[in-house]
Amino acid sequence: MQTTSADSTAPASPALARPSLRPDCGNCFALCCTAFGFSRSADFALDKPAGSPCQNLAHDFSCSIHDSLRPRGFRGCTVFDCFGAGQNVSQGFFAGKSWLENPDTKNEMFAAFKAARQLHEMLWYLAEAQTRTFDPDASHRAVQLRNTIGHAASGALPELLSLDFQELHSQVRSILMDVSEEVRASYFAAGDDHLESALKPGADLIGKNFGSRRLCGADLRGAYLIAADLRDSDLSGVDLLGADFRDARLEGADLSKALYLTQPQLNAAKGSRTTLLPPDLEMPSHWHGHNS
Ligand code: SF4
Q1: Cα-to-centroid distance, 35 and ligand 1 (Å)
Q2: Residue 31 Cβ < 6 Å to ligand 1
Q3: Of 88, 95, 124, 144, which sees the most CB atoms within 10 A?
Q4: φ, ψ of residue 57 in degrees (nearest 5)
Q5: For a pocket test of ligand 1, which of 28, 32, 36, 63 has the largest count of ligand atoms closer than 8 A to its C-beta?
Q6: Cβ(45) to ligand 1 under 6 A?
């Protein structure tokens, strides 16, 4: 990832730093296994309504099939990432008192988790935008918004639950798009008109072969890259905001300078130790033969 002098304007709260936007399941009351619902599908072996504990959840909030989620049909659980909202809500907003100890708080806690996850995800993207831009104005806007969202994510529960998320999403989107344009402009075109016309926001690239191609600077925001072959490709400066990476082949791909890549996207893809990742992201365990 590029670093810039603009990043020296750090946000005020340490709660906004990227390491605190990583899940800490040991300090969470399994909120992802309770608050959200899922339907029986290729990703989940059974139906589970929102607001109820998964039948595989143990009393200590651990998953009883953690080591065999994929073979047992729970691939969706290995893809999900709360961006650190779980421990924030469990230990921050609810001061370490679980929904099991205090069932009356259950609905509020689950609602808070859903709200906080959105805020934490926004913080994740804004941290990257701030780091990648060389424009002092864009950096300043990112810092301001990180602080606003950070305060909401660590403030009072009623305020969290009454936030105008549509407005926040729109402000975040504006900054992310400006920084994306700036970053992508610094990469040269591939010199391949056919390739460039295919690489568009929201493009249907399902199953396409981009192996060993230089895709640098492309705007693949919201693109469908399901099962696409990206092996040994160069995705430096590619905007991947919300791109669907399910089963995309990433072995040997260079994602180290890709823009707006998240852990859930990686978790959904197929890669290996030869895949180059941005510094804040981890190689999913199933890439090296583990099933969780
Ligand atoms: S299978 Fe395990 S990780 Fe998935 S929701 Fe159930 S308890 Fe949670």
Answers
A1: 11
A2: no
A3: 88
A4: -80, 130
A5: 63
A6: no
The pLDDT of residue 85? 97
Is the whole-model pTM more than 0.90? yes
Which residue has the least CA distance to atom 4 on ligand 1? 77
Residues making up the chain, counted from first to last: 292
Is residue 3 over pLDDT 60? no
Ligand 1 within 6 A of CB of 115: no
Q: What is the pLDDT of residue 82?
A: 98
Ligand 1 centroid – CA 34 distance (Å):
9
CATH 2.160.20.80 holds for 188-292: yes
Mean pLDDT value of segment 143-162? 95
The closest-lying atom of ligand 1 relative to the alpha carbon of residue 76 is 4
CA–centroid distance, residue 9 to ligand 1 (Å)? 39
Domain with CATH 2.160.20.80 in the chain: 188-292
* Å from CA of 210 to ligand 1 middle: 34
Cα–Cα distance list, 122 to 4, 69, 100, 225 (Å): 20, 28, 29, 22
Q: Of 142, 123, 122, 125, give the one whose Cα is nearest residue 7.
A: 142
Per-residue pLDDT band at 292 (split at 50, 70, 90): low
- pLDDT score, position 192: 74
What residue type is 175 in one-letter code? I
Q: What is the pLDDT of residues 30-40, one digit of tens each?
A: 999 999 999 99
For the stretch 190-213, pLDDT in tens is: 567 788 888 999 999 999 999 999
